[in-house]
Amino acid sequence: MSASPRVSVILPAYDVAPFVGRTVASLAAQDWPGIEIVAVDDGSADDTAAALERALEDFRRSGPERSATLMRQENAGLGAARNAALARATGELVLFADGDDLLDPGALSALVAALLSPPEPCLVFPRCRYIDEDGAPLGLQSGHRRRRLTAVDLLFENPIHTDTGVLLRRQALQRAGPFDPGLPSAIGLDAWLRVAAGRGACIAQVPRVLVSYRRHGRQITADWRRQRAGWEAVGARARARGLLGARRLSRARARAMTVWAAGAYAAGEEDELRRLMRGALLRDPVAVLGTRHGRLKLAAAAASGLPRSWQDRLIRWHLRRREGSAAEERR
Fold first, then answer.
1. Hey, which bits of 272-312 come out as E strands?
2. 3-state SS class at 35
3. Distance between CA atoms of 62 and 34, rounded to whole angstroms?
4. DSSP label at residue 2
5. What does residue 127 show for φ and ψ, rounded to 5 degrees?
6. What's the Rg (C-alpha) of the chain?
């Protein structure tokens, strides 16, 4: 591999006209010289294609080693859009970016350094902060993983909160096979499991927060039922490939249920919130009581009979306590 390998950015975009220009601008601001963007407008119904055209033209002018391609296709979903972009990519390394997220300046250099540092991992990803639709911080960040992770850890811990910032070698993707366009969600998770399967602890987190993960109601993760359907399909595949047994899959599902419960809470589906948390407790009490996220969702389920304004106050109180405890630990 060359001393300064070229990086292909895979950028699928569907109805993200208000955001995608800023995503591309954050890529233009990177200090890595050799970047090509392969963007795919996946049959957007809004002005995403026009926004991409403008932003990619600016990106091409941001450095002599920079190039950009815009592809258009009928709406076929995230997996198909990524596969189409990968077929055109030429870089030795591949970075994934969603059309509504942002990379911090210097993010790409930090990720490449981590991927190429011995013993070289099979995949690296950064920590992220959560932002709202307008770009304001929500006060939440993904956690810090101090050790390398295995494929099974991806199912248990959900450490990659957004695929934006995932970096790996193109050869690793070619060995793993294409993204599955038939999955309703967990499309990245399915691919990363195949990249890491049989390689032990080969997934490394860059401990810095380098990505802003935008949350809004039009993304896949806003639909908890769609999240569940994708996770269940990927979990069944992992079980069939022998990555984990029935008991470990049940424990992993318990943790996933606390994530789906968060979606049910956001949607105001209190019966589903209680059902999901009850199921998680029955499968693996430690997954609920042993994590802050699990305890928070359990408290939300217990308080779900109260007026929503009271519930929101309890959640804010819990978050303030958590932030205070974290600050105390850092001191």
1. none
2. strand
3. 11
4. -
5. -75, 160
6. 20
Helix (H, G, I), strand (E, B) or coil at 74: coil
Angle between helices 246-266 and 270-283 (to 10 degrees): 160
> Which contacts of 238-246 are long-range, i.e. CB under 8 A and separated by 24 or more positions?
238/151, 238/152, 238/155, 238/193, 241/197, 243/151, 243/152, 243/155, 243/193, 243/197, 244/152, 244/155
Q: What is the pLDDT of residues 232-256, one digit of tens each?
A: 999 999 999 999 899 999 999 999 9
The pTM for the full model equals: 0.89
| Strands of 98-202, DSSP E | 102-103, 123-131, 137-141, 167-169
Question: For residues 209 and 128, is the Cβ–Cβ distance under 8 A?
Answer: yes
CA angle 261, 267, 273 (to 5 degrees): 30
For residues 140 and 21, give the distance between their C-alpha atoms in angstroms, rounded to a whole number. Answer: 24
What value, to the nearest 5°, has the Cα angle with vertex 197 and ends 193 and 201? Answer: 95
Per-residue pLDDT tens over the stretch 117-136: 999 999 999 999 999 999 99
Whether 311 contacts 273, CB under 8 Å: no
Ramachandran angles phi, psi of 66, nearest 5°: -110, 140
